[in-house]
Amino acid sequence: MTDIRINIKNKTYPTAASPSIADLELLLGSKEFICLVGPSGCGKTTLLNIVAGLDQDYEGEILVGQRHTHPKIGYIFQNPCLLPWRTVRENIELVLDKSQTGDAIDALLEVMQLTQAQHVYPERLSLGMSRRVSIIRAFAVDPDVLLMDEPFVSLDAPTARQVRQLLLKLWQQRPHTVLFVTHDLREAIALADRLIFLSSAPMQVISEITVPIARSERCNELAIESFRQHLLQNHPEIKQLL
After folding, report:
1. Is 68 helix (H, G, I), strand (E, B) or coil?
2. What is the CATH number of the domain that holds 105?
3. What is the DSSP letter of 185?
4. What is the total count of domains within the chain?
5. Residue 1 confidence (pLDDT)
6. How sure is the predictor about 99, in pLDDT bands with cuts at 50, 70 and 90?
7. What mean pLDDT comes out for the span 51-61?
8. Residue 234, C-beta contacts closer than 8 angstroms, at least 6 positions apart
């Protein structure tokens, strides 16, 4: 894997009077977990769609290493987007080519604690289980960058905590570059190597802050809250973004 450079000079929707994104530059380090934090409507989903190649109507460039190309993407949306007529396993198999073996799926199902549910149809899954399936499907394609657009936003707190911990366990076993959008500063601290705080439109970077908490301590809610308070006290520019 290589670094990914994002340079968006201008993204303006046809009906808008001003840009959604202007002069935004990001460097995603190889296998780095980055959380984007910013106010609603600032353009975070637009940014992910540009990185994914779903939106090509912008001025700028994306470099994978030194190549002008869109990276190979794994995308996890707020909606799990599972096909209801296919089982859990079949939904995962859809993204794989024929050369990949079932052993890879078995390993992913085990890490995400879904082995017993692999032949179940989506209508019988809880929302938390559906989110875990979407995480497996995104990791299964072995992407250059994994995009996650507030994937836990509608889960209750205990379920969100469980799925975050499973996500981290999978990411530590299979590290990928991650760009994760969230409004929840505690969630961002629990997950990220680096926090990037974004302004209202036109979106620009306000602050970039490395999370100093060891990975072994990311389940420690006191450590997370202590660092959150530190951020709010020492970086007043981010308060308006939360």
Report:
1. strand
2. 3.40.50.300
3. H
4. 1
5. 58
6. low
7. 90
8. none
